[in-house]
Specification:
By secondary structure, this protein is an alpha+beta fold. The chain is 33% helix and 26% strand. Helix 4 (91-104) packs antiparallel against helix 5 (110-117), helix 10 (247-263) packs antiparallel against helix 20 and helix 13 (316-325) crosses helix 19.
Length: 725
């Protein structure tokens, strides 16, 4: 008995010692690494919330760039297994149903999903896809929730920019790139999308938004435990850009440049449409003959602001403006335009034109683009004045447009000018510019001498459509004077009317501009390449109150078909673009021109006059008229428009002559109130109606009183109250 008791006590002691040792190992030594699990359960982790990147819209609110979030979905098969055991369902059938749901709402194959779900070991979490859009995920989640299927694990994967109009505006819109901040091998890395070029990089801070986070604690089944002390920071979505770009104009520009690129076999086609009064960029495009995807174009340089070229004869109006200001020449003054031989330090140079001219007027030197003529004019101006004016127009430095990748162009300092530089620069050689710089210079000519800061973003709005920032037109400086600029406009109009850009002339629209056919320099060498040119046309319309400035540039158009002449390539493209713009349903250009052409005057009063007198008055005021004589030897009884009404002087006044009808005097009827007392109500009504008096009866039977005494004079339709009993 004692032995049994001793054995029992010994076994109990051993069990207690083993249990204590085991607890010691678990709690103190942590042989199963439970401490990390406990910390994870007790200390909340942070779920990073990626904000939506801001959208980009055109000036009319059309969406140009947006974002789509993509998610990774996994299936926790351990939870599926537990669920099937508890609900007494077949696990394979459940996997089949899961694959049906996911394939229905995504582009994933049902067979591939099922194959992944049946991979061993079956108690693990299996990856299905990291390319599920937010809309697809919502439908999948709803289906899982409705059928009470557990195990769907969803995590943010990536964000992609979408472009509803494809390649349209790809040059300036730019692109984004994905990156992760922090250690990419740890949970601390944060996914970000940042701008890499174009507007995406220029306004990256405004578009990107602020990352949010949410503290979370999960239970053993990997379900989030909602606790009140958990903190969170709401993600702030990026702001949206509203551009000055008009999507309709952008489509017109790109379509015509693309057609021209093929037709004239050029290496590049560039174009900009601007609003001269404000400096707003309405459309901007740069195309290449090399086939490139939309992504490649967005990631490439924005060539309308980066590609430099010699402007050629499009620079001649700037030289001419100085001569006009200084009254060196009058528009009609004749200048010898035969071949011009000049010498500098024993070096000879002959300046000549493509077409031989003898003497041309100052105006026609611009109209026919004479190099000889402008060279002689610039000698009267001098290097210092020309250099300062080039700088004032914006050549040789950036336009302050804040557009990514903009080049400053090339204009050597005055001290670096060589012997023939003055002549060369006067007709656009030894200087390089960008399409944007040239367009802004012509905006200055068109708007009356105001050098505006070009801008492409109109407003920045937050996710609630509240305006955060507005970009307004900014005048940098003013050059020249109204008289000189108006004269120069007529010179540029002559270029279109009968000069080198006659192919642009329109029957219903006055256009001004200047062609440029510039030789291309050989990179790294002196001199110019043979058979390689830049074809340019810069113009604006309408001439009196310009609404649009358009610059078209073709780089190395086909030489054999003479497309290198601006008149054969850039000019036709400009004309097509102009026609497309004024034919837009919303365009008011032609209507505004017609309205401005009207000469409004006030119609004189000829009513009551004889025919001869009325004609004399209208002729003295030089007013057209049409007579309508209804009766001979009559007076003017009416006119249209009415006297003192404003009307277009080009329209006729209609004058109506007739015999004036004598007004018939109004017949006055004096009614006398009859005696109604003592009469029956019926007799009283008959008597009153004969006198055009309206009775208001109270009661029935014999009249005992009347409100108007007998013998009183009454008016037509007067009311009388009678009482009957």
């Amino acid at each position: 008995m004692k032995i049994r008791l001793l054995i029992f006590i010994t076994i109990n002691i051993l069990v207690v010692l083993v249990w204590i040792s085991y607890l010691f190992c678990i709690q103190i030594l942590d042989i199963h690494n439970f401490r990390e699990t406990i910390e994870l359960r007790q200390n909340p982790s942070k779920n990073i919330i990626i904000p939506d990147r801001g959208n980009i819209y055109d000036t009319n609110g059309k969406l140009l760039v947006s974002s789509i979030k993509y998610y990774q979905i996994d299936i926790d098969r351990n939870l599926i297994s537990k669920y099937c055991k508890n609900e007494n369902e077949n696990e394979k059938n459940k996997y089949l149903r899961i694959s049906e749901i996911i394939s229905k709402y995504s582009n994933l194959s049902e067979k591939k999903i099922l194959k992944k779900l049946n991979r061993k070991p079956l108690n693990s979490c299996i990856f299905l896809s990291d390319n599920i859009s937010e809309a697809e995920l919502l439908k999948i989640s709803d289906a899982f929730h409705q059928e009470k299927i557990p195990g769907l694990v969803k995590t943010f994967s990536k964000m992609k920019r979408t472009y509803p109009y494809g390649k349209l505006g790809a040059n300036f819109l730019g692109a984004v790139k994905e990156m992760e901040e922090g250690n990419t091998n740890s949970r601390e890395s944060i996914y970000k999308v940042v701008g890499s070029c174009g507007l995406e990089v220029t306004f990256d801070n405004e578009l990107s938004g602020e990352i949010g986070w949410q503290e979370t604690i999960y239970d053993a089944n990997n379900k989030r435990i909602p606790l009140v002390f958990l903190k969170e920071k709401t993600a702030k979505c990026g702001n949206s850009l509203y551009l000055t770009i008009d999507n309709d104009l952008q489509e017109i520009l790109e379509e015509n440049l693309n057609n021209g690129l093929k037709e004239y076999k050029a290496k590049k086609a560039l174009g900009i449409i601007m609003e001269p009064a404000t400096g707003a960029i309405l459309a901007m495009s740069g195309l290449s003959s090399k086939h490139r995807s939309a992504a490649e174009i967005r990631s490439s340089a924005n060539i309308p602001v980066s590609f430099m070229f010699e402007p050629g004869s499009t620079l001649k109006p700037i030289t001419a403006l100085l001569a006009i200001e200084k009254n060196i020449y009058k528009p009609s003054d004749k200048i010898d335009c035969r071949n011009y031989h000049i010498t500098y330090k024993s070096e000879d140079r002959t300046i000549k034109d493509d077409h031989k001219y003898n003497f041309l007027s100052f105006k026609d030197i611009i109209a026919h683009s004479s190099n000889v003529g402008i060279s002689k004019i610039v000698e009267e101006i001098g290097s210092k004045a020309l250099y300062e004016r080039m700088i004032a127009f914006g050549f040789g430095h950036k336009t302050s447009s804040n557009i990514a990748g903009e080049s400053s162009g090339i204009l050597r300092k005055l001290k670096d000018w060589q012997g023939f530089s003055l002549h060369s620069i006067s007709f656009g050689q030894e200087i390089s510019t960008t399409t944007l710089q040239l367009a802004n210079a012509y905006c200055t000519i068109a708007n009356g001498g105001k050098v505006m800061q070009p801008y492409i973003v109109k407003e920045i709005k937050d996710e609630n459509n509240k305006i955060i920032k507005t970009f307004k037109p900014k005048k940098l400086r003013t050059i020249s004077d109204k008289r000189s600029l108006n004269t120069l406009k007529q010179f540029l109009k002559a270029v279109v009317d009968y000069g080198t850009a006659i192919g642009t002339k329109s029957d219903f629209l006055e256009i001004a501009g200047k062609t440029g056919t510039a030789e291309k320099t050989i990179y790294g060498l002196e001199g110019y390449a043979k058979e390689k040119y830049t074809s340019i046309f810069a113009g604006f319309f309408p001439v009196d109150e310009p609404e649009y400035v358009i610059v078209i540039v073709y780089d190395e158009p086909d030489y054999s078909s003479y497309s290198y002449y601006a008149s054969n390539s850039a000019v036709p493209t400009f004309r097509k673009i102009t026609t497309n713009i004024i034919n837009l349903p919303q365009s008011k250009t032609i209507c505004d021109i017609k309205e401005r052409e009207k000469d409004f005057i006030f119609a004189p009063n000829v009513i009551g006059m004889t025919k001869e007198k009325a004609i004399d008055v209208l002729k003295k005021k030089d007013i057209l008229f049409t007579l309508k004589e209804l009766n001979p030897n009559s007076l003017v009884v009416d006119q249209f428009p009415k006297p003192n009404t404003s009307f277009d002087k080009s329209k006729s006044i209609i004058v109506i002559l007739d015999k004036e009808e004598q007004e018939q005097p109004l017949r006055k009827f004096d009614y006398e109130m009859p005696k109604l007392i003592g009469l029956t109500l019926r007799k009283a009504v008959n008597m009153a109606s004969k006198k055009n008096i309206k009775l208001i009866a109270k009661g029935n039977g014999i009249i005992i009183s009347q409100s108007i005494p007998p013998g009183t004079k009454t008016k037509y339709g007067e009311k009388c109250i009678v009482k009957a009993n």
